[in-house]
């Protein structure tokens, strides 16, 4: 069974240096796993947070107890693991090191810690339970389904398949003590017991390549089952399993088959006896329920006249329903789902509704969002309401749908004619701001509609506000775009007939996203998706899971595999992802060398610097050679950069020294060949002197010694003069532009790019009505075939720059996961204030600074059990005060580094001023 990381965070509050009894503990829900059931790793990692108002708090030791029952834990009887008092400051990613746990075992645990300020009490208890750890334990559970088209169903370009309504009546003769359901429902499911929906998830489970791995969800249903008759009910939707154009382009799009499910209900009775209920041919189903169609591209059709009253309760006669049949399993290995499902995470009230000339209504949500629409309607039986979704309008006020390609994106509701009817779909989502609604025979009210915002159940961990309103709007647009494209995997867009997890969109994007959302379990899962999609000889696809058979063998796209693993390490202190995936990354690196490295240069590139601003506003891709960067330049530079990461990964993985030597030698050869062929020492430029061609060797430290400043000056000329202070890069170059400009001392130019309102820029998008991030710099004018208005790939390193370079919230490379924080804002870039926060694995980090003239005030919060290096570039040390005390009179340690004052701060909140 694959190794997945399980983390539980506990908040320890109110430390006291006087008496242990004064220390209070507060238990939080699991931070990294909203439902800690069904864990399928034998040595999960445990974490906790220290929360205190005291300053300079450092953990010195911890003690963990893990027991098989709550009672034993209460009595400090740690029959599974007693760590003893461990002298360590580790408070995240501490491995469970107790007895080997079996399938379905429960583990109750608590922790106490010692700090330099005192000892805590035991925390409240936390719990995890093991999943089904072996295939053998699933073997007797059969998959059931019905591989048949019924009336109204079809397979083709616009495939249709009604939802399957499945039920099973069971009789429990004893009182239930505990019960858990282990469920695989392909492609999507909703599960009920006695008419009650189990869980708040939607669009579950998360998508995978079902021929490689299948996720099961686990629910504690002890309180839903009763002695006597019960009914288990499932609605099976299509999802990515069926009807996503598979039969339309079978050479491109994978096909998985008809919906199916497998279930185990494990029951323990109060008398100690146990029973397992499984899916078999006695389960009944009907294809004639109200969900007539459900297709992610095309929408959902719901006929309320076909509702089946009480279908999932005991008060129902299913004698005329069909029996389910044994069907072939999907083929992939069964895994406990270790990342949360999607949920309705927010709601949006529409801002306007307008009647059109043809009698329909245009609903404006006021925000480009991702999810669906809940409606309230009344009318006669059989009346039909249709809702077509789009991101923007034409000049005449009608929907602009050319950019949706052949996605029909229409939900349909057929009324049953019984007063007010409230409806929302179950098995689709849409990317939209506007909805054309047809079928109302009266004037609907704004209050009749609610937009439901749907994405993975993850916490928002970052906030950012600054003195520039354009940057604030871009941040808001990024927030909406990022969360809308989290769909159990990071997708490129939520609206057209694509919605694919392109690797190149997240190569650096995942890093920036992590400052806003706690996305670690999502990206751990995505690393597995990439691993599972790797070919036997080492190739990695362009999209993973490989729903599309695109194996372009590039470097800049496929490099996301390594870059995301590095992000998880840097931002969350996660070494496990690197160790787990190192062999597969190495296999890919060698595959690319064997097949495409010629004369020590990487010759294979597929997409180039995708989406550079073109020479004409009406075209998608530039044809001007002066704007385009040679693919060999991109792939060779990026390959060199990835070889540096492989050296780092080899050290973390404790692999043999020969691996490190190999990467080092290969990297040096690539660097030498790259500079020999592409570096022009006369004009200090690379290749054809595009900004991208120059920024990559600067960012990757490939420039020959003594030339970096000259190359940078040349690049600045290209940005500042030739491009008039505007972006000229595509997806590849934009990943490193902002940070490189700031690193070499031109944060002011980076600020100009970030705050621009004219084309091409992020601000131009906002000025032209964007409420998310466009796919193209010219997304309001380009050919409609590719101008999605909700992509995130062009964000590049902008959000990283917001936090690390403007706010000064950065994790140290030597102590990752924000164990040590680097706080080095560019106070002179052009902002007058920044107010930012980030909830790290250790707790909240805050950076609030304000600059007026020559006076700087800066409030810094450093979480317990961490430290920060705080850099000040203004004035001299005699002008610095910390908590109103002159620096040289305070107890704060400080030093001078490159003409900067560096404060060494332990945990706490500090008020810094410089006159």
UniProtKB/TrEMBL annotation:
Keywords from the UniProt entry: Hydrolase, Signal
Ranges for domain Alpha-L-rhamnosidase six-hairpin glycosidase: 460-806
UniProt-listed Pfam families: Bac_rhamnosid (PF05592), Bac_rhamnosid6H (PF17389), Bac_rhamnosid_C (PF17390), Bac_rhamnosid_N (PF08531), Ig_Rha78A_N (PF25788)
Stored InterPro entries: 6-hairpin_glycosidase_sf, 6hp_glycosidase-like_sf, Alpha_rhamnosid, Bac_rhamnosid6H, Bac_rhamnosid_C, Bac_rhamnosid_N, Ig-like_fold, Rhamnosid_concanavalin
Signal peptide per UniProt: 1-19
Occurrences of domain Bacterial alpha-L-rhamnosidase N-terminal (ranges): 174-345
Catalytically driven reaction(s): Hydrolysis of terminal non-reducing alpha-L-rhamnose residues in alpha-L-rhamnosides
Residue ranges annotated for the Alpha-L-rhamnosidase concanavalin-like domain, each copy included: 355-455
Entry EC number(s): 3.2.1.40
Domain Alpha-L-rhamnosidase C-terminal: 808-882
GO BP field: carbohydrate metabolic process
Top-rank lineage group of the source organism: Bacteria
GO molecular function, a single term: alpha-L-rhamnosidase activity
PANTHER family: ALPHA-RHAMNOSIDASE (EUROFUNG), ALPHA-RHAMNOSIDASE (EUROFUNG)-RELATED
Protein name according to UniProt: alpha-L-rhamnosidase
Organism: Neotamlana nanhaiensis
């Amino acid at each position: 069974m694959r190794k997945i990381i399980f983390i539980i965070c506990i908040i320890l509050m109110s430390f006291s240096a006087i008496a242990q009894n004064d220390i209070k503990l507060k238990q939080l829900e699991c931070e990294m796993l909203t439902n800690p059931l069904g864990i399928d790793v034998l040595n999960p990692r445990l974490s906790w947070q220290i929360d205190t108002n005291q300053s300079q708090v450092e953990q010195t030791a911890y003690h963990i107890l893990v027991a098989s029952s709550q009672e034993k834990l209460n009595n400090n009887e740690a029959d599974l693991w007693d760590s003893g008092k461990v002298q360590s400051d580790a408070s995240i990613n501490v491995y469970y090191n107790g007895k080997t746990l079996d399938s379905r075992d429960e583990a109750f645990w608590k922790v106490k810690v010692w700090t330099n300020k005192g000892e805590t009490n035991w925390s409240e208890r936390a719990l995890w339970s093991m999943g089904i750890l072996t295939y053998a334990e699933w073997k007797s559970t059969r998959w059931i389904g019905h591989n048949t088209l019924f009336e109204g169903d079809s397979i083709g370009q616009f495939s249709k398949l009604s939802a399957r309504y499945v039920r099973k009546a069971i009789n429990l003769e004893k009182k239930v003590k505990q019960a858990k359901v282990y469920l695989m429902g392909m492609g999507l499911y909703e599960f009920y017991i006695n008419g009650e929906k189990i869980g708040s998830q939607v669009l579950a489970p998360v998508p995978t390549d079902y021929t490689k791995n299948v996720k099961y969800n686990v629910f504690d249903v002890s309180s839903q089952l009763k002695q006597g008759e019960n009914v288990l009910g499932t609605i099976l939707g299509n999802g990515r399993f069926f009807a996503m154009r598979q039969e339309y382009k079978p050479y491109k799009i994978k096909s998985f088959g008809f919906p199916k499910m497998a279930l185990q209900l494990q029951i323990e009775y109060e008398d100690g006896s146990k029973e397992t209920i499984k899916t078999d041919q006695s389960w009944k189903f009907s294809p004639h329920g109200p969900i007539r169609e459900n297709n992610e591209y095309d929408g959902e059709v719901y006929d309320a006249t076909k509702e089946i009253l009480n279908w999932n309760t005991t008060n129902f006669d299913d004698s005329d329903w069909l029996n389910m049949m044994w069907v072939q399993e999907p083929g992939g290995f069964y895994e406990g789902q270790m990342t949360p499902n999607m949920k309705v995470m927010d709601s949006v009230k529409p801002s306007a509704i307008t009647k059109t000339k043809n009698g329909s209504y245009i609903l404006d949500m006021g925000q480009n969002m991702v999810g669906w629409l809940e409606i309230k309607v009344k009318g006669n039986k059989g009346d039909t309401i249709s809702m077509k979704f789009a991101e923007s309008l034409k000049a005449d006020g009608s929907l602009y749908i050319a950019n949706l390609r052949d996605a029909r994106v229409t939900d349909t509701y057929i009324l049953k004619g019984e007063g007010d009817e409230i409806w929302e779909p179950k098995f689709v989502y849409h990317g939209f701001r506007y909805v054309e609604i047809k079928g109302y025979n009266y004037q609907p009210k704004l209050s009749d509609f609610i937009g439901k915002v749907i994405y993975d159940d993850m916490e928002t961990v970052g906030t950012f506000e600054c003195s520039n309103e354009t940057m604030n709007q871009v941040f808001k647009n990024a927030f909406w775009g990022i969360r809308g494209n989290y769909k159990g995997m990071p997708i490129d867009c939520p609206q057209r007939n694509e919605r694919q997890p392109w690797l190149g969109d997240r190569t650096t994007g995942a890093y920036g996203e992590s400052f806003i959302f706690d996305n670690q379990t999502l990206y751990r899962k995505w690393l597995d998706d990439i691993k599972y999609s790797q070919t036997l000889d080492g190739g990695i696809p362009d999209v993973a899971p490989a729903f599309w058979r695109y194996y372009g063998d590039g470097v800049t796209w496929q490099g996301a595999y390594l870059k995301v693993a590095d992000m998880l390490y840097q931002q969350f202190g996660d070494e496990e992802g690197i160790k787990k995936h190192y062999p597969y990354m190495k296999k890919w690196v060698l595959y690319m060398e064997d097949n495409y490295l010629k004369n020590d240069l990487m010759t294979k590139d597929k997409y180039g610097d995708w989406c550079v601003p073109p020479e004409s506003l009406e075209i998608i891709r530039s044809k001007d050679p002066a704007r385009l960067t040679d693919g060999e330049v991109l792939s060779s530079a990026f390959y060199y950069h990835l070889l540096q990461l492989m050296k780092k990964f080899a050290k973390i993985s404790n692999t043999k020294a020969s691996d490190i030597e190999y990467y080092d030698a290969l990297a040096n050869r690539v660097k030498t060949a790259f500079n020999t062929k592409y570096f022009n020492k006369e004009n200090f430029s690379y290749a054809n002197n595009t900004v991208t061609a120059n920024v990559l060797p600067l960012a990757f430290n490939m420039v020959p010694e003594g030339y970096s400043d000259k190359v940078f000056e040349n690049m600045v000329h290209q940005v500042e003069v030739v491009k008039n202070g505007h972006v000229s890069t595509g997806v590849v170059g934009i990943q490193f532009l902002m940070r490189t400009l700031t690193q070499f001392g031109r944060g002011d130019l980076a600020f100009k790019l970030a705050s621009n309102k004219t084309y091409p820029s992020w601000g131009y998008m906002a000025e032209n009505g964007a409420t998310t991030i466009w796919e193209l710099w010219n997304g309001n004018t380009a050919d409609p075939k590719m101008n999605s208005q909700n992509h995130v790939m062009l964000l590049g390193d902008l959000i990283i720059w917001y936090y690390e370079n403007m706010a000064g919230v950065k994790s140290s490379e030597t102590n990752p996961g924000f164990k040590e924080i680097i706080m080095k804002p560019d106070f002179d870039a052009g902002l007058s204030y920044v107010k930012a926060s980030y909830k790290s694995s250790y707790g909240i980090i805050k950076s609030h600074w304000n600059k007026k003239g020559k006076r700087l005030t800066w409030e810094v919060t450093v979480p317990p059990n961490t430290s920060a290096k705080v850099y000040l570039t203004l004035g001299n040390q005699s002008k610095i005060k910390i908590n109103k005390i002159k620096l040289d009179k305070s107890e704060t340690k400080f030093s001078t580094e490159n003409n900067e004052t560096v404060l060494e701060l332990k945990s706490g909140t500090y008020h810094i001023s410089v006159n």
